[in-house]
Design goal:
Layout lengths: L7 H34 L4 H8 L3 H11 L8 H13 L1
């Protein structure tokens, strides 16, 4: 006898929704990294960028630190690839 009833359709929908939410969050973070890289190319520092984007200075500084080794071009895709694993650890 089962103690709980398992509804596969509900469970699959829950997993899909969690996946969509994770995808949205990752997309928002990637957009932010791209914006930061563009502003770094223009010579702005992390304090100016944080103020312009209305974001937490510590978060923007972490992105700038990851982007630093790709200066002066700040290749967005390389920064994203380098920054994301550091955040997930």
């Amino acid at each position: 006898m089962l103690l709980t009833e398992y509804n596969e359709a509900e469970t699959m929908e829950m997993f899909r929704e969690e996946g969509r939410e994770e995808g949205r969050e990752e997309g928002e973070e990637n957009r932010l990294i791209r914006q930061v890289c563009r502003k770094l190319r223009k010579g702005q520092d992390y304090v100016e960028i944080a103020e312009d984007l209305v974001e937490d200075e510590a978060h923007i500084k972490a992105i700038c630190d990851a982007a630093e080794k790709y200066a002066p071009d700040y290749n967005e895709e390389l920064v994203i690839a380098d920054y994301r694993p550091a955040v997930l650890v």
